[in-house]
Amino acid sequence: MRIGILTSSRADYGIYLPLLERMKTDSFFEMEIIAFGTHLSKSHGYTLSDIEKGQYVCIHTISSMISNDNEQSIASSYGLTVLKFADFWESHSYDLVFCLGDRFEMSAAVQAGIPFGIKFAHIHGGETTLGAIDNVYRHQITLASKLHFTATDVFRKKVINLTDSLDDVYDVGSLSLNDIKSFVPIDRAAFFEEFNIPNEEFILVTFHPETMSVQENVKYAQAMKNALATISKETFVIITMPNADTQGSVYREAIEKLKTECPNRLLLIENFGKIKYFSAMYYSKLLLGNTSSGILEAASFGKYVVNVGDRQKGRIQSGNVLNCEFEERAIIVVVSKAIIFGSYNGDNIYFKINVANNIIKIVKEFYASI
């Protein structure tokens, strides 16, 4: 079975990994990676190098990103991605192509495949993020897909409502958590030494723009900066940098300015990679920001999350998430509360066992039926 894997960022590649490792060693599959988006961007860590380390038989690369991140540039990147993939789909055929999540680049690649009758399998459909324009892209991808793997039954029902069909919609759990029970973090001393982290507690931070409130982002970025300046006086801060979203540079500039003001209290990371990111989460005191990993993964590490603003609004949450408005003082207060709480001992509603194996089983059954 010939499989294509669309990956446009460090985030979706990290989620795919358990599935890719199994497909790579299963003779039933002839798998090809299709890398595009920020993977090819040097300003975002050039994460294509991480994919190349995976020693896949075939890696296609498609460059279509425009460096600016204003509304016109994002729309232009979307259009350019569609044009590039129109050429790609014309000359490449697959039995099934995996797509994941809600990025605008992913949506563009999928939309280009519709006239070619490409069969897409969508992971993480049916979710809602009211504070991000990605909400629209995610549902576009769902409507263009033939096979659906959702993270909870709530999302499965949403996909059924969107597609008006019960066929080929499966609640499998979050793929990124597939190997979480057997995960072993990098040795603490080695991890701290590699990144020159002081021997003290730290908070793991990731902020992205609220792309449904573009006019508010300058204010939000300043609130983030001011709050982190105060928090870093008491607790060391590790920041993973924003993705290529509309006005992401507003947050980057605020973070980089903060680094110059507090050089010894912050560590900025462009791309950890999955193992190092999970290790950072494992050793962190808590998570802060508005990233999906706080919602999907942190509970499995026993971490509380201060989820700021509306970017993740609409996603169902485990009991470890403390929601907070995008305001300097509110962020400081809720972080202080979360630190007092210590470790989270509840369940992760996104966890199910054998996610990757279940997806493979379903894909093989799907292939037999077509």
UniProtKB/TrEMBL annotation:
SUPFAM superfamilies according to UniProt: UDP-Glycosyltransferase/glycogen phosphorylase
One GO molecular-function annotation for this sequence? hydrolase activity, acting on glycosyl bonds
- Top-level taxon in the UniProt lineage: Bacteria
Instruction: Cite the NCBIfam families for this sequence.
Output: NeuC_NnaA (TIGR03568)
Protein's recorded name: UDP-N-acetylglucosamine 2-epimerase
Q: Reply yes or no: does the keyword Ribosomal protein apply.
A: no
**Domain UDP-N-acetylglucosamine 2-epimerase: from-to ranges:** 22-364
Q: What class of enzyme is it?
A: hydrolase
Q: What is its EC number?
A: 3.2.1.183
The UniProt keywords, alphabetically, are:
Glycosidase, Hydrolase
User: Coding gene?
Assistant: neuC
